[in-house]
User: Fold this.
Amino acid sequence: MIVMNIFQEQIVRLLSDLVPLEPEQIKEDLEIPPNLELGNYAFPCFKLAKVHKAAPGLIAARLAEKVPADPLLEKVVANGPYLNFFLNKARLAQHTVGEVLQQKEEYGKSDVGKGRTVVIDFSAPNIAKPFGIGHLRSTIIGNSLYKIHAALGYKCIGINYIGDWGTQFGKLITAYHHWGDEAVLAQNPINHLYELYVRFHREAELDPGLEDGARNWFKKLEDGDPHAVELWQHFRDISLAELKRVYARLGVKFDYWHGESFYNEMMEDTIKAVEESGLLEQSQGAWIVSLEDEGMPPCLLRKQDGATLYATRDLTAAIYRYNTWQFAKALYVVGVDQTLYFRQLFAVLKKMGMQWVERCQHIPFGMIRFEGGKMSTRQGSLIFLDDVLSEAIGRAREIIAEKNPCLPDQEEVARQVGVGALIFGDLSNDRIKDVDFSWDQVMDFSGETAPYIQYAHARICSILRKAPAEAECNLSLLVNEHEYALVSVLSKFPEAIARAGETCKPSFVARYLIDVAKEFSRFYHQCPVLNAESDVRGARLALIDAVRQVLANGLSLLGIAAPEEM
RNA sequence: GUGCCCGUAGCUCAGCUGGAUAGAGUGUUUGACUACGAAUCAAAAGGUCGCAGGUUCGAAUCCUGCCGGGCACGCCA
Assistant:
C-alpha cells in the first residue's frame, strides 16, 4: 500500500496512539475486508495477541472501545479478531467525488516517479515478417506500461527496437535471389516477403546449403556490400511503411524507432569494451563471454565468421540508452521464452561493471498459441494482426448497425470498440499466462470486456448530454447502498495505478475498471438520475460525471478509447 | 536431462504479496426494456483451490517432494 488517502492516513494515526506498533507496520497490516458490509478497512489483531498474550478478539473489542470519535469515521467495531472501520459515507462521497471532479484527467495520478526516467523497450517486431499477434502482446503491454508510468510521474522513453538486422536478412536476400519477383514485391510487398521467408525455411530443410548462403549474405551485409545494403534498405523501407499503418490502427506511438541497425556503428566499441574488461574469450571459433560461474550458458558476441549476434546489439543498445538517458528503470517487454537470454545479457553487463544493470528489468509475458500449437512464422502458421483487427472492427461495425444505426462517425467508433476489445482481452489477465488465441474470444463483446466499460461510459455521457453536472451540489447525499459502493470503488483508483506500475502489470488497472463499470451498471439500474428529486439529482449527476472521468482516465492508461456514443 | 513458469467452477480467469463464508465472466435454467441506451441488470445452479507433506494462531497464497502442461538450454531473434 504505497498510496494512502486521507481516510487511511487518519486510521493509521488513530491506531498508532493506541497500539505498540510503528505507523509503517500499521499501514502494512491495514487491509480491505472482503465486502463493504464489514467496513471499508480492517485492522487484524493477531500480532497484538502475541504481544499482549490475549485473545485477538478481546484485543479488537478493547480497541473498539478506545478509538476516539472522528468526523471521518462513521463507526469502529470489533468483529471477531478484526477491528473494522466504517468511513463516514457523506465525507467519503464529498471527498472522493469532489477530488475527481476537481482533478479531472489528473485524478489517479501521482508523482512517485518525479524526476526519474523510465526507458521502455516494446513491440520490437521483426521487420521482413508480417506483424503477427505475438508482437501484439509486447506492443499493448508496453504501451500501457508507458502510460501508467507517465501517470506516476515518470518521464517515459518509448523505444521500438525493431528487428531490422541479423541473419534473417541474409535469409531474405538469399530467398529473393532464388524466388523473388520484383513486380510482385512492388505490388504486395509484405506478402511477398512473407512468402519468401516461409519458402526459405521450407526449402532449407531439404537443402542445408541455403542456410550457408544466408549466413554469407548477412556477413556481406555487415561488411557493407553495396548490393546487400541496397536490398536490405529496400526491404526495410517497405516493411516500415506497413508497420506504421498497423500502429496507426492500434493507436500506438513511440518516441524512438531505434532498431537493431541503429547500433551498427557502435558495436565494435562494445566488443572492445568487453575485451578490455577481460571477459572476451574464443571458443569453438566464436567469441563469447563465459557465464559458467553464474550457472548459465555463455553469451555469444561473434559468430565463427565474425558476424555479430542479437546479444552484441542488445548490449550496445543498453549501454547507449544508459549513457543517453541515465534511466531509473529500463523495461524490456519481451516474451517469457527469452528469460534466460535476458539473465545472460544482464549478467554480462554486470561483469562489465555496469552497476546500473540493476535498473534493467525483463518484463515477460506468456506465449500465444493457436489450436494447441505455438504459432510460427517460419511454418507460416501465423495469424496476421491485420486480419484480427479487421474481424474485431467488423464485428463492432455489425453491432452498431444493429443497435445504433444513427450513430455519427460509425467507422471510427467501430475501430475504437473493436480494437479496445482486443487490447482489453489481453491486458485483463496476468501477462505471464499463456493465451490460447480464439476467434470466439475476439468477437465476444459481452461480460468483462472493453465494450462493457465503454458502454457504461457512453451511457453516462448520454445522461450528461441531457443534463450536465453542475458545480453546486450536495455530495453528502450520496449515501445509499449503491451510491456508497460506487464512491468507495472510485476512491481506490490511485492505488490501482500505483500497483500496476509497481508490478508492471496493467491487469490491475483493467480489473479495477471492470469493478467500476460493474458497480455503475448496478447503480444505473437501481437509481434514477434524471428523474430523481432535485437535490439528489444534482448529487447523482456529479457522481456519474466522476465515474465517467475515472473510466475515461483508466481506459486511456490501457490505450483504449472511451467513445461518448457507441 | 537441467533450469524457470503455470495448474482455482464445464470453459476463460480474479483472488490486493499469509487472514474473515474461495469470487467474476462465459455457458446452462429463469426473471426484467410504458425511468436516464437490454453491448445491460437480477436470481438459481456449479469448486476435495493438481496431489502429498511441512511452516504458522491462520495457507489458494510461503517451503519441500511428486503429477500434469508450457518454455528455455552456443553460432536465430
